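Schema walk-through. Below, the input block comes first and the output block second. Nothing else is stored per chain. Lengths vary across the set, and this one has 77 residues.
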Amino acid sequence: MQSAIQLPQYAWRQLNYAWVVFYIVLGALNLFVAFTMDEETWVNFKLFGMMGLTFLFILLQGFYISKHIETESTNSD
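--- output ---
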């Protein structure tokens, strides 16, 4: 991905850590729902809730990337 989008090294590191934290939280939330609620609620959460949270996270990640993206300077000769 780094060859397609130019970001500072610290931004890539923060994005990687954000994905790690997101999946840890999502896994813990999944376990909480699985063991405290009925099976139908858990299935609906896995299908709609986790998908929605993932899309929201990707959208927020897009805003973060657009804020830190490095544009190539083009010289007009």
